[in-house]
Amino acid sequence: VISTNAGGINVLRYGNTRNLVLGLEVVLADGEVWDGLRALRKDNAGYDLKQLFIGAEGTLGIVTRAVLRLVPRPRSSVSVLVAVPDPVTATRLLRRAQGDFSETLTSFELLEAPCVTMTLDHLGGGDTMVPGVSPWYVLIEVSGPADQASCENTVQRFLEAAFPDEVSDARLAISPAQADALWTMRESIPDAHNRAGFSVKHDISVPVSRVAEFLRQADAALHSAYPQVQSFTFGHLGDGNLHYNPLIKLDGHDPIDTRREVNRIVHDIVFSLGGSVSAEHGVGQVRLGDVERYRSAVELRLMRRVKEALDPEYLMNPGKILHEEAS
Amino acid sequence: VISTNAGGINVLRYGNTRNLVLGLEVVLADGEVWDGLRALRKDNAGYDLKQLFIGAEGTLGIVTRAVLRLVPRPRSSVSVLVAVPDPVTATRLLRRAQGDFSETLTSFELLEAPCVTMTLDHLGGGDTMVPGVSPWYVLIEVSGPADQASCENTVQRFLEAAFPDEVSDARLAISPAQADALWTMRESIPDAHNRAGFSVKHDISVPVSRVAEFLRQADAALHSAYPQVQSFTFGHLGDGNLHYNPLIKLDGHDPIDTRREVNRIVHDIVFSLGGSVSAEHGVGQVRLGDVERYRSAVELRLMRRVKEALDPEYLMNPGKILHEEAS
Q1: CB contact residues (below 8 A), chain B span 195-234, against chain A
Q2: Chain B: residue nearest A8 by CA?
Q3: What global pTM score does this model have?
Q4: A42–B236 CB contact, under 8 Å
Q5: Residues A127, B82: contact at Cβ < 8 Å?
Q6: What's the Cα-to-Cα distance from A307 to each of A60, A301, A325, B305, rounded to whole Å?
Q7: In angstroms, rounded to a whole number, what is the distance separating the alpha carbons of residues A8 and A26?
Q8: Tell me: the pLDDT tens digits for B122-155?
Q9: What span, in angstroms and rounded, lies between the C-alpha atoms of A38 and A25?
Q10: Residues 123-152 (A) with a CB less than 8 A from some CB of B
Q11: Does B323 score more than 90 pLDDT?
Q12: Residues of chain B contacting A17 with CB distance shorter than 8 Å
């Protein structure tokens, strides 16, 4: 979790894992153990060494212990599945939600219709939770210190104010069981997707204001190259992080070549919009070539300097994030 | 602001500056410019290089541009000055406030009585804002997306529930002008303090749960060494960060020696409680010896490796954070 700076559906409220780490113990490449197990919210006594190891995928050292920041458990929680006409409107709805709920806006997930319908087919049932037929949905959670009735009222008022300009229909979960069912649907999307045929996965981010533009460009480019493509997009609109996972008919084409070609089309667009080719799942081996392609020469040099300062012999998790160079 | 990872009175809600930086442009020691001006909330495509430069006090490069995260302006805000008997009770009140207000708890400042009375004397007036005679006060701000009346009701209920166990008296600002006056008082404390005589300043942090213990130990140790010491403590209890700035009668003693001796007494206690000798103001030159004394050999070596990877000739802001070693 720490070595990948993991994200997920609640980053909007709580931040990435980096935001929750106060202290670390790390085994270094030379075998020494760094004890940085502080429990401080504020510490500016020199370089903040823990930042080096968070998200470094074990390439600078092995995290063996950690001190995490905790937050009070929310007293109330409301989930609602909302029908929206398109990603532009969904982004406008996000801005409204941020104004109304501030930090208590916990999740804001964008779901293309096939993600919802195919997942409910896969799970068997649950269609009653879907607010009408719509090309896009947004799954929202608001949680916080208010009592349950106040929290529900706030969400009701938000939905009324957004209807019909941004919201065409909505189903508010009226029990914890209904809320659980909505989030089970959300969490089962990757599973349903994996059964749906050959697809090419992406874990991209762009500035939130450019998500709709990214989708417009990527969908157009892919339809042009693969007329039978079926888009299948879901993800964390609140963070600008999408799992853009189109289903592609192979028609005898090589899956590895196809994956490479689709990745290239999508990632070139991401790059042109100032985005990242790995928002929350890291580089590993799979995205190594992308890092070399899309990060600048200055950045790659800086990354290598950091790597060689902490692990000059490339002993730690070799072959991840950076190739060992024969220099 | 970025190179010192600045803090202040709203860290409780918004985090340190590090938490608000999305992208940076930095001039490196070799004269190259790193363009890391991304505007992404999530990016795990390799090392998060911006973390290196935030809080590095310019010793690894010069920050020339930045992309910052913005948050919606709160719709409502309530400030209240609360009388509490002691720091233990103030810490209990903080926990209650975190439960009741969650992220909308914006500030939670602990003020020893002399900070309030001397500052109001200095400003001339404002005593009507003080809720009775008390050895300690807490200045709280709650702000968020609710309307002003709801926000005030929430704070009223919080105070009623905390009375009399944690709160002996309270003055809630009933107008923006009264709230401004409370915060002007808070912001004028350093000014009033500077006129009050010789003092030794600290910018320490300990885990929030150990703040009261720190004060007990530090006050006792200083009273033993300097029977005429007058304690003068204020700071960000919500972050465990105190400005522990006792007024000392010099009685002919050398101010530089006295400062060194008091720093040593206080910082040894901070260290024994797992704290930091620089919570929000950085190391600079003044705290350089403290960093060498209190950070472990492994840490100092790691810091030096990072420094030498990015600035092998010690060109950037020399003499800050780390001495240049004749190795």
Answers
A1: 205-208
A2: B42
A3: 0.96
A4: yes
A5: no
A6: 6, 10, 12, 11
A7: 24
A8: 999 777 889 989 999 999 999 999 999 999 999 9
A9: 9
A10: 144-145
A11: no
A12: none
